[in-house]
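Work package 3, deliverable 3.1, input record:
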Amino acid sequence: MVAAGAPLAPLLAKELREIVAGRALWIMLLLLCPLVGFGFFQAVSLYGDASQSALQSPVLATSLSPFDGMLIPTLGSFYVGVTLLFPFVAIRALGSEKETGALRLLVQLPYGSATLISAKLIAIASAWVLCTIPALSALVIWALLGGHIGAGETANLLAGHFLYALLIGAIALFAAAVADSSATAAIITLAFTIGSWVLDFALAGNPGLLGSISRISLTQTLRTFEQGLLSIGLVLGIVAAICAFAALAAVWLPPGVNVRAKLVRSVICIVLAGLIVAATMRIRLVTDVTEDQRNSFPSADARALANLSEPLTVTVHLAPEDPRYVDLSRNVLAKLERVMPNVTIRLAGDRAARTAGQDEHYGEVEYVYGQRSDVSRSTSHREILPLLYALAGREPPRPEPGAEYPGYPLDANAQPALAWFFGALPALIACAWWWSRRPPRIDQTIT
Amino acid sequence: MQSHVYQQHIGALDVVGLTKRYGSRVAIFDAGFSAQSGEVVGVIGPNGAGKTTLLEAIAGILPCDGGKIRWNGTEPSRRRDVIFYLPDGVRPYGDQYVEPVLGFFAGVYRRAAGDLDAIVAAVGLNPVRGQRVRTLSKGFARRLIWAIGLLAPQPVLLLDEPFDGFDIKQTREMMNLLRQIAAGSRSLILSIHQLRDAEQICDRIVLLAEGRIRGAGTLAELRAKANLPDGTLEDIFLALT
């Protein structure tokens, strides 16, 4: 009989070897070099152009943040690569075993399906770490050029990219478990990833159900991290989605279970995951991790607003796709929701009335605090916060003298970096690929 | 080959009323037989008889529509604790080298390095240990599967077409190896379509045709059943199927 508690180390080592042995990982790494490199080069050039005047004026310099100017565009090209290429790396973790019949040996080993899928997910996460080499090297070059890197916002954004990649990996594993071939699994996974882009383009800004659907698209997972926000609800939601897809992959992995039983277990998984994701969407715990605190009111205002305990109701007479609503939401409403204990925001009227021009109050925003109310058309916190203090009968707090964000202008020449991304790094990756394919050393005790 | 390499097991596997359907088509119907420790049982039948389906259903790789598998009279909670199945036509982890693939299975079952070397030597894999699995010839790919089966400690080993890819001399070598494995009290159930091979290696034979067992027993018992006292396995097979 087989003893329980098989060691995990050989399984993990096998999964890592299998991912590294495939061409998909190396080809993705090679393609990421020019993709990330060109994105980085363009970002640094544009940042340099913007920095030229800012270097003469400290006021202008405060608006120059490497987070927006370099980090997001550079990791943006990495995101494109992960969306389009990473599914092929992840699918290999299971697809090749299905195609060669090795899966029929694997499922007989003393591991549960959950253990097998977890090991594959760890291998996929390790593959993503390898894939970050071009992006991380861009950060190193930026630092060598004299650029500033904010640790918190950078770590937060990288964590977002990691969760996004793991979600893609879990979807790919599920697709590989369900599909008979790797090609079918790739089609299923790309339907999720590219389908999310389509959802975003088609439905973003729509109110109601369509808007809600667009908010849970894959591309939305990164948006909050790119705004410099660490949302606990979002992180838990993504983790729940990753676990759900991994659980579905584990349900569909064993060939010895009939389809009806698999379908029943899948429905249970989906319902549970749906409930957990819905619960996480209600968690409002969000931290602004940006160095310039762009997502927060000044600290004195934040403290004063946190003490306004009565309910605040904001009624917005704007269409969701109106740029003023986008500004208001980003500059005021989202910050109010994070800082005040009891805020309700609602859009007034229906879409038809707004587009037909029948809303005579269109453009107005009504603030009701306790028994008092006021109306404003402003989208700036500088006008709205005094209005709120007046409604609450409080004195506006005095601004605190503190360390203002200085901004980090940098006019650097990134031309030499192109040689790294288009020459040296691909050459190093090709050498590592060749080295990984060397035959093993064999120590025989008996011949 | 050191004797400790093959683990000792005492017991009996019973297959009772196993049935497998694909939609309305019955692939295996009410199959039942047993295999004792140290016994080599051959499932023989023409192509399409259901040999592979039967082995995969016994191993739990295919979901069954009915029937039971018992080990020493009780149903094991997990069949993989008792049975290890070596499929036909599998070339696992083609992009990896033979050595780490074997090392993986040896590691999972906590086999000593000496055991691995002994098994590799016994199945004749030494010349290709440093070769990629994808580049192995059919015969060496088959030897790799044999080695994986020998590394697995389960008391019952199911082998689908174990001599496929071997020439006459190699088949004879592997038959001797099978005998050594069975001597370690393992039950071996083989699916074979070469009747001559089956006659030489099997202690008992299960005749399968169109998913139904047409006869099971020793060659002498089958001769008596077919009323062919001097008949070859081929004669018996033709008479009973």
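The longest strand of chain A covers residues 312-316.
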